[in-house]
């Protein structure tokens, strides 16, 4: 007989397969439509009878990835208003007091969902962890500044889902006092915001950031510039009343036009310096510093001690930005003459290239571009967070994922590590290639399980006197001290804006 649990809203029926029970598409908040579209999330209405939780649910409104990226990640979009839901995987028979992992997906705050096959939580449940994956509002509905509406609605959705976990995860065998929140890319940037938010107190106890940073948040006034542009395209005011009658499809069209305009002209005088910095020249809808959910830039909050009582596991992939430059053809097209101009867009001085070129004598201009931008967007900031937390009471553990994809030229690119973390390589081969090493997945997945269980992934904490970084590679994974220090120092010294 299929198992049934009682949660906020009513009863849900799951399905057990090979010792793991999955409960899919459980609503944790009311559909954000009508008057709720630009407001904070509200409690889900009670339903009658037993709700089937055996199929994946709708996704937050979004457009597909461009073709080169879609070829690596796939396209998983399902329409429907009831997309503020979550999935739970738990060992059959459950038990009690199991550690809990809550997954926040990435997608530049405008794409992605908990329905992506790589995010299947079966392996975590197999190994004694309750895995919860959540959806949240994306794009302008999630993060745009709307006069009269709530700020940071996507982050408020995440907080609301974490409250749901606190109130309900025991029904699935989970321990609400052992919750680890983890995410990748925009999901990791979300974790950084949650780690430093006063509204997250007591909602989680450990945090994992995969390929994120602690500097993604814009000042409200700067972020509003994008909202004014979008509303102008729609012929309305950037208010709750002005946007009330705009369809989701029309809003997505305007959001897409905004993204193109921003990418073509990331001018701080036009969009605001903090918005351009937070958006990395590409993301138009990001968290905002609202004095409530996000009181200040996460890196500044960490410097002041926020989140220092929460153990953190964080890291990046060695070749993050090849995910963006190689499929788009930019890596092959850029010349050594054009390289300084490409980096200047990100406020990076030309002299930085000299250090990277000296450290990588065989690198092409495209290789150098990807290396510098990988560190600029991800590694430098992640390392800075570890440095700021070096004396915190709770530990910080750093990793570097160095295994190169079997897809030509991708290297250890952005998003490549996810299938290894989830021990779900069979659903990840569009980005890993056909023969990813299972032994690397065994090591990485086990480290995440260990961190969820007791806060130690299996290598030393990061300290000033011992800046340990776990390098995940195949056939060997090892701990190294302060890898690529010369490049990182050059990058930090060479920011001209």
TrEMBL record:
Assigned keywords, A-Z: Hydrolase
Any one GO molecular function term: hydrolase activity
Carboxylesterase type B domain sequence ranges: 2-465
A Pfam family annotated for this UniProt entry: COesterase
Enzyme nomenclature, EC number: 3.1.1.-
Family, per entry: Belongs to the type-B carboxylesterase/lipase family.
The protein, known as: Carboxylic ester hydrolase
Organism from which the protein derives: Antrihabitans cavernicola
Upper classification of the organism: Bacteria, Bacillati, Actinomycetota, Actinomycetes, Mycobacteriales
């Amino acid at each position: 007989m299929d198992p049934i649990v009682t949660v906020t809203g009513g009863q849900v029926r799951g399905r057990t397969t090979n010792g793991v029970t999955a409960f899919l598409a459980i609503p944790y908040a009311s559909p954000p439509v009508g008057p709720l579209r630009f407001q904070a999330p509200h409690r889900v209405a009670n339903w009658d009878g037993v709700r089937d939780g055996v199929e994946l649910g709708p996704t937050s409104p979004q457009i597909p990835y461009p073709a080169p990226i879609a070829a690596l990640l796939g396209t998983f979009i399902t329409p429907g208003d009831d997309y503020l839901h979550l999935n739970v995987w738990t060992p059959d028979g459950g038990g009690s007091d199991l550690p809990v992992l809550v997954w926040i997906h990435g997608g530049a705050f405008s794409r992605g969902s908990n329905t992506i096959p790589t995010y299947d939580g079966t392996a975590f449940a197999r190994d004694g962890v309750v895995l919860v994956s959540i959806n949240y509002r994306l794009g302008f509905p999630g993060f745009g500044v709307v006069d009269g509406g709530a700020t940071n609605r996507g982050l408020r959705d995440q907080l609301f889902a974490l409250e749901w976990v606190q109130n309900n995860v025991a029904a699935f065998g989970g321990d609400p006092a052992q919750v680890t929140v983890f995410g990748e890319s925009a999901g990791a940037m979300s974790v950084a915001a949650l780690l430093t938010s006063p509204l997250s107190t007591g909602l989680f106890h450990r945090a994992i950031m995969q390929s994120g940073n602690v500097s993604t948040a814009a000042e409200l006034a700067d972020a509003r510039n994008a909202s004014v542009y979008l509303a102008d395209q729609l012929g309305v005011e950037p208010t709750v009343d002005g946007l009330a009658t705009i369809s989701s499809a029309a809003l997505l069209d305007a959001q897409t036009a905004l993204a193109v305009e921003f990418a073509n002209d990331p001018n701080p005088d036009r969009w605001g310096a903090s918005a351009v910095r937070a958006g990395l020249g590409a993301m138009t809808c990001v968290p905002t510093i609202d004095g409530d959910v996000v009181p200040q830039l996460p890196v500044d909050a960490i410097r002041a001690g926020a989140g220092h009582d929460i153990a953190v596991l964080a890291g990046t992939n060695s070749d993050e930005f090849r995910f963006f430059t190689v499929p788009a053809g930019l890596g092959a097209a850029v010349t050594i003459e054009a390289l300084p101009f490409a980096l200047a867009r990100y406020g990076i001085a030309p002299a930085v290239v000299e250090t990277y070129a000296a450290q990588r004598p065989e690198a092409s201009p495209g290789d150098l571009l990807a290396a510098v931008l990988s560190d600029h967007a991800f590694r430098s900031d992640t390392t800075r967070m570890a440095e700021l937390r070096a004396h915190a009471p709770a530990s910080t553990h750093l990793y570097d994922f160095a295994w190169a994809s079997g897809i030509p030229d991708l290297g250890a690119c952005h998003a490549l590590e996810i299938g290894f973390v989830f021990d779900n390589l069979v659903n990840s081969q569009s980005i890993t290639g056909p023969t990813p090493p299972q032994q690397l997945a065994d090591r990485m997945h086990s480290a995440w399980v260990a961190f969820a269980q007791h806060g130690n992934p299996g290598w030393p904490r990061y300290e000033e006197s011992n800046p340990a970084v776990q390098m995940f590679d195949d056939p060997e994974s090892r701990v190294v001290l302060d890898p690529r220090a010369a490049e990182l120092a050059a990058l930090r010294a060479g920011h001209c804006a």
